[in-house]
Amino acid sequence: MISRLAARLWGNAWLLLCCTTTFWAGNAIIGRAVAGLVPPATLSFWRWTGAFCIVLGFAWEHLRADWPVVKRHWRMMLLLSATGIACFNVMLYTGLKTTTALNGVLMQSSQPLLVILWAVVLLREIPGARQMLGVAVSLVGVAAIASHGDVGSLATLTLNPGDVWILGGCVIYALYTALLRWRPKVHPLSFLAVTFFIGAVMILPVMLMERAEGQVITGGVPAYLALGYTMIFPSLLAYLCFNRGVELIGPSRAGQASHLVPVFGVLLAVVALGERFYGYHALGIVLIGTGILLASVAPGQALWPAVRAMVARGR
To answer: How far is the CA of 114 from the CAs of 23, 197, 283, in angstroms?
Structure first.
């Protein structure tokens, strides 16, 4: 029974991507909450070091078999580790120290469009009109949530250094998403173990610089609980699900899932923090869902037959 459910989940791209974005929404909340307690590179280093130690026990046998392939594709492994593990996460946590929640949501919501742009540059994938319409509709939904229903307030937004850090991180992570098309054909756990390890090694010098400047972990048990969360959920589980989602439906369509981060962020805030759910939340969620639906239908397919087929096969 459990094996059948696991197999169904592993073949269901959008369910996997929903898990991913839920974990990432929690990561954004945690990252903001510990911004003054755990330095950004320190948080990133221990996040990936812990995730590597956890996954290694499960990946060891696969890694031994896959090692010749990993060595053959070492340049791509380095590039994927740098873009998806090292750079993005340090830049995200650095940005969360100084940006507002509204600005942070909007910066991260640019990622689906950035993935499409990278796919055009690297893969020569020209987006169709329906896909671009889907991106636009989703962005309107994100704006509705982020602006609390007053979209006009977005005109007064100004960029601060935190916004620039997060936007730069999104550009780099979008590149990682597009590059996954060329990831080595190894077991998913082998891929995670190698990229987590390389990413942590890349972050280590930055963490040591933080320590030399006197930036250390404070805050006691809550800070270490936050570290534990980041090691397991937005790292090990989220990346396992995200990489598989990209494998199933491609980078451009999977990239649309990033629009779900503010949706799940709102729901987590309601459940975990007791915040109120307003009409603009519902409007934003409906618009985001509609946009993702539009963008997820492959070019040349009729919309409703394709939607019915996606639902029928769980994708």
So the answer is: 21, 26, 24
- Which of 95, 125, 90 has its CA nearest to residue 110? 95
pLDDT tens-digit profile of 283-294?
877 887 788 777
Contact 157, 105 (CB under 8 A): no
How many C-beta atoms surround the C-beta of residue 252 within 10 A? 24
Block residue for tokens 């109120």: 276
Give the torsion sign (CA, 176, 179, 183, 187).
positive
The predicted model scores a pTM of 0.81
- pLDDT for residue 41 is more than 60: yes
> How far from the centroid of its chain's Cα atoms is residue 267's Cα?
17
Using CA atoms, how far residue 164 sits from 51, 108, 308, in Å, is 27, 11, 40
| pLDDT band at 311; cut points 50, 70, 90 | very low
What are residue 131's phi and psi, to 5 degrees? -65, -45
Residue 157 is predicted with a pLDDT of 64
The b-or-e profile of 30-61 (16+ CB within 10 A means b, else e) is bbbebbebbbbbbbbbbbbbbbbebbeeebee
